[in-house]
Design brief:
The chain has ten helices and eight strands. The protein is globular.
Amino acid sequence: MKFVSLLVVNILLVINMESAFADRPIKHHKNSAHNSESNAMQCVAFSPYVGDINPNYGSQPSHKLIDTLLDKLVKDTHFRCIMTYGVMNGLDYTFAAAEARKLKVIAIIWLDKNIAVNDQSIASGIEVAKAFPKTIVKLSCGSEVRTRHGNVFDGEIVKCMDNLSKAGVKQPITTIDTWWEWCNRTTPCQKTGFEAKVDWIGVNIFPWWENKHAGVHTCTTAEQAADFHIARLEDISRTYPGKELTLTEFGWPNSPEGGTETNTRTGQKCGVAGQKNQIIAIKSTLKKLAKKNWGGNVFEAFSEKWKPNDEGSFGAHWGICQGEPPYTCVKDFK
C-alpha cells in the first residue's frame, strides 16, 4: 500500500478521455481460491520486503526468503490466494513458488513515474502472465497510480492494458486504486472512464486512513469498518453496474497497541490500533464480502518495517504475520 492522503482534493472535473479509453473485448473468467461461503476469492497481500529489506534500495528478497514466507502463510493461515506487488527485481520468482504450493495469484504490474521502468515492468508482466496462466488468475496495471499522481500517468495505465491485450494475455485486467479514485474524486460516485478498459474493478478501502485524512467520512471504528467497506463498494457497484468488484486492500493496524490517529480536519480520534481490533475489522469484513459474493484481499500477510518512512508509525504494523522470524501469524484467521 503506497498510501497518500485521501480526499485532500475537492470535487474535480476530469477531461474527456474517450479516445484513450477505447473499448477492448471484455473477458469473463471464473474466480479461483474460493472461500467456503461463496464463489468469491479470499486473498492476502504478499510482499517479501520484511526485516531490514527495503524495496527502494539495497538487496532484494531472496528465493529462500520468499519460499519461507509462503510456507509460513500456507501452514498458519487459510489463505490460498495472494496479491503481489511487482514482477521484477526477483519478485517474478514468487509465481513459481506460488504454483509449487498451489496458490492462486493476483499480480500487480507496478507502474510509477519512470516510463522506461514501466515498459520493462509491462514486458515482464506479459511474460509471467503467459508462463503461469493457471496460477496468475488476475492482473492489475498499477496500484494507486492515480492516488499518488493524479491523472498524470493515466496514459501509462492505458498503455499497460493495451499491451497486455495485444500480447494475448488471457487473465482479466484492471487497474487498482482507492474507492475515491474509482469514484472520480467526487461524491456521489461518478465514472472514471477506465470501465471501458477493465474486466474487473479492484478497490482499496482504508477507514483507518480516512480517520486521519478525510473530510467526508471522518470517524470509523474497527467495529464499523466492515460496514464502511461494504458501503463504499456498493457506491462503486451502482456506478459500474455489471462489473466484478474486488476489495483489493483492506485491513487494520495491530500495533502500537491502543495507538490512534487524529483527523487533520476535525480533531476526532476514532481508529484504535491493536490486534483485537485488527481481527474484528478483517473477520467481519470477510464475512460480509462472502455474503455479497465479492472478493476480498487482506492487507497484508507480513508486516513491513520500512513502511513508516511513507506511512508514519502505524505503517509497519498491518501484517497478520510478523515481519521478523519466526514470522508468527494470528491464528484467528485460520
